[in-house]
Amino acid sequence: MRYFYIVxxxxxxxxxxxxxxxxxYNYFLVNNTWMLVSTLLVFIMHLGFACLETGLTQSKNTVxxxxxxxxVLSISILSFSIVGFSLMxxxxxxxxxxxxxxxxxxxxxxxxxxxxxxxxxxxxTDFIFQAMFAATAAxxxxxxxxxxxxxxxxxxxxxxxxxxxxxxxxxxKWGGGWLQNLGFYDFAGSTLVHGVGGxxxxxxxxxxxxxxxxxxxxxxxxxxxxHNMPLASIGVFLLWFGWYxxxxxxxLSANPEAVSLVFVxxxxxxxSGVIGAMMASWYFFNKPDLSMTLNGSLAGLVGITAGAxxxxxxxxxxxxxxAGLLVVFSVFGIDRMKIDDPVGAISVHLVCGxxxxxxVGLFSSSHSLLTQLIGxxxxxxxxxxxxxxxxxxxxxxIGLRVSYNEELKxxxxxxxxxxxxxxFQIFTVE
Length: 430
What we know:
Layout: H1 2-16, H2 20-55, H3 62-88, H4 123-144, H5 151-171, H6 178-182, H7 190-208, H8 229-248, H9 256-285, H10 290-305, H11 313-336, H12 345-363, H13 369-397, H14 404-409, H15 411-416
C-alpha cells in the first residue's frame, strides 16, 4: 500500500512539475491524433457514398458506380496534392487568387510539427484532412450524373474541378480570402464542400439530359427504382458515422467542449432530418418512403454543417427538420424540371447546403444573413460558370454521354466488360 502511495505522489508531482513545452507538446499530440482520426472517418464516408449510389441505381451499372468512387477519390487526392492545396491555402495573397507552390512542401522555417497552425497539428495532417474534403466535393457530382456519363469524361472533370475550381473558391473563406474578411461563415462546408459539389452536379445532370425512360410525354415522371435498398441504407449509416469526423474534425482541435457540442448538433440535425423527410413523404405518398427518409438524414447533416459549432441543440433540430422537408420538395421540383438526378444529390447537397448556410445568418446573432446570402450567390455563380465550361469543353472534345445502346445494355458491360452480379445480368457479352 505504501508503495502505491509513493508512486501516486511521484506521479502527481511529475505532472505539476511538467515544463510548459511538455504541456504544449501533449496538447499538440492530442489535437493531431484527433485530426487524423477524423480524417479516417471522412475517408469512410466515401465507402458510404459508394454504397448509397450503388443501392439507388440499377444493377447493370454497379461496377461502374463502384469504379467511379474508387477512381475519383484517388484522382482528387492526387490533384489536390499537386496543385489544389497550394491554391486553397496560398498564405499571403490578394484574397481572390493565390498560389504557394507545386506539390507538398512544408512552409519555410517550419518543422511541420508544433510550430505549424499555432501548435495544433502538423502540415501533413492539415493536407490529408483537407484532401478528404476535396474528394467529397467531386464524389457528390458522381451520383447526379450516374448511369449515363462516360467514365473518362467524369474522371477528367473531377481532376480539373478539384485541382483548380474547388481550391480557389475554398480559399475565399478557409484560405483567409475576401469572404472570410467579409464575415461569411461556413464551419465545415455546407457551401464550400456540399454546395460547390452540388452546383457542379446540377450542371452535369442538366447537360447530360435524363436517362432513357426517365420521363415520358407531357412531362410524365417515370421513377427508376434503385436495385438494392439494404445497400443504400448501409451507405447512409456509413455517411452519418463519417460525418462525426467531417464536422468534429473541423473544430481543428480536440477541445472537448467544442467537439462534444458539434457531435450533439450533428446528431440532432440528422435525426430531425429523418423525421422531416418521413413526415413529408408520408403526406405525399400516403406511406413513408425509405429513399426519401434516407436522404432526409443526409439533408439534416448537410444543413447543420455550416453552423454545427455555434448552434444550440434546439436550433440544430429546427435546421435538420426543415432540411428534411426541403429535400422532399426539392426532389419533386427537380423532377418537374426534367432534371434526372438518380440519387437526389442536388436536393441533398445543393438545396440543403444553401439552407444550412443561410440558417447561420437566421439563427446566429453574430452573423449577417445578407453576408451569408452574398457568399451563397458568389459560390453559386462561380461554380455554375466554371463547371459549365469544363463540362461543355469535355463534351466537345471527347463527349459526355455514352451511346443509346451502351446505356441500355448497362455501363458495367459497355464501359468495363464486367458484370456486377454474375449470372443475374439481363445482358451478356457477345
